[in-house]
Amino acid sequence: MVARPRPRPGWPVRRKRYHLDVRRRAWPGASGRVASWCIAAAAVWASASAGVGAQRPADLVAGVRVAGDVTAIENDYVRVRYLALDLANASRSGEPPLPAVVFVRVKDGSGADDTWPLEAPARTRPPRRPAAAPRGIVVEILKAPPAASPLADPEADPPRDTVEQARWAGGRLLIATFEPLHYGEGSGSYASVTTFLSDGMVEVASRGVRRRIGVRAGDALWLEARTRITVLSDDPVAAAIVQLDPGR
């Protein structure tokens, strides 16, 4: 065995470079078969997702029947009732789960009685517990609330992607999605009945008072004008905000 000379100090050292050949032998038609398998798996997953998704509230309103009601909120301005619904086309075992909230109905002193289906935005997480009895929300407007104080928190506007679903003479219905830890967002410039459409932990703040509340889909709160809403849980929380115009 011949000893290899050691390099002297300061001399450049030349090292061998090793290349690993990671190319694999391809079989004719293999890529086509893999693509076919991927397409088939995607189709099966899509059909399974569609089968387990919640039924849309708009499809359920036509067959709704009220089985009972309970008063949830009552003050000088509104009376809010939860309606227990018995749906003619309700789900049975093995069928898609029912939504927690089907609709919101607004009644005011002028005799208006309008009903709008409620559906949580797609990017929110479905409720952890499927609704055993779907709920309808009835908001009876007793009188117009006072206008917001100019000293109220100015950073309480709804999120930028909020959708106005309906408008009437005494207010409007907004569908808003609150992202986790987005500060400076809230229910807006008017007092409101806010119904949550998904589960989460939120902090509501008004006039220097903060409350941390664990909400579930279907819970309604009376919020004064310029109330901030901050999501403390990991997932976005959607809400239907019935704003009441103080100027009507």
Structure description:
By secondary structure, the chain is mainly beta. It has one domain (57-244): Jelly Rolls, CATH 2.60.120. Helices cover 11% and strands 36% of the residues. The protein has two helices and 13 strands; from the N terminus they run ααβββββββββββββ. The chain has helices at 30-52, 57-60, and strands at 64-74, 78-87, 101-107, 113-117, 135-141, 163-168, 171-178, 192-196, 200-206, 209-215, 220-223, 228-231, 237-244. The strands form three sheets. The chain has a five-stranded mixed sheet with strand order 1-2-5-3-4. The longest helix is centred in the first third of the chain and has 23 residues, at 30-52. Mean pLDDT is 78; it is low at 18-28 and 44-53.
